């Protein structure tokens, strides 16, 4: 009984549209599916693909780490260039030379005590 009523409802719904309307509806549905699929693919590419937002965030972090490393290396270079300029012939800083000899070779005068302090130059490697 109720099968017949359900069959009549479905049959009337299908036959209410002529073939042109059904083709028009199926084309509209097809265009909608294509557009939604394109947006989904673009979204996935934007967030998860190479050169996407995920890569941008990761590369930004790497860039900050490298800039900090460059800053530390520039500080080390300035300290080393200052030491080299003090030991260059023609402009030798005798006090600095004495400190270097004492530090490298442990030479001390009578009554002097050597206290070693870690270098100010830090290497990450």
Give keywords.
single chain, 125 residues, mainly alpha, 2 domains, 4 helices, 73% helix, rod-shaped
Outline the secondary-structure elements.
Elements: H1 2-15, H2 19-48, H3 53-87, H4 94-105
Rounded to the nearest angstrom, the radius of gyration is 39 Å
What is the N-to-C order of secondary-structure elements (H for helix, E for strand)? Answer: HHHH
Beta-strand segment tally: 0
Provide the low-confidence segments as ranges.
none
The figure for the number of domains is 2
The outline comes out as: rod-shaped
Question: What amount of the residues lies in strands?
Answer: under 5%
For the residues shown, what is the average pLDDT?
Answer: 78
Structural class: mainly alpha
- State the end-to-end CA separation: 84 Å
Helicity range: over 70%
Question: What can be said about the biggest beta sheet?
Answer: none
Q: With helices defined by DSSP (H or I, 4 residues minimum), what is the helix count? A: 4
């Amino acid at each position: 009984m109720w099968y017949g009523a359900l069959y009549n409802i479905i049959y009337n719904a299908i036959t209410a549209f002529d073939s042109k309307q059904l083709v028009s509806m199926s084309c509209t549905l097809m265009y909608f599916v294509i557009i939604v699929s394109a947006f989904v693919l673009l979204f996935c590419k934007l967030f998860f693909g190479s050169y996407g937002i995920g890569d941008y965030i990761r590369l930004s972090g790497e860039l900050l780490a490298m800039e900090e490393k460059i800053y530390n290396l520039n500080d080390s270079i300035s300290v080393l260039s200052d030491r080299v300029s003090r030991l260059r012939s023609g402009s030798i800083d005798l006090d600095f030379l004495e400190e270097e000899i004492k530090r490298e070779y442990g030479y001390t005068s009578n009554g002097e005590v050597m206290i070693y302090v870690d270098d100010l130059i830090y290497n990450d490697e």
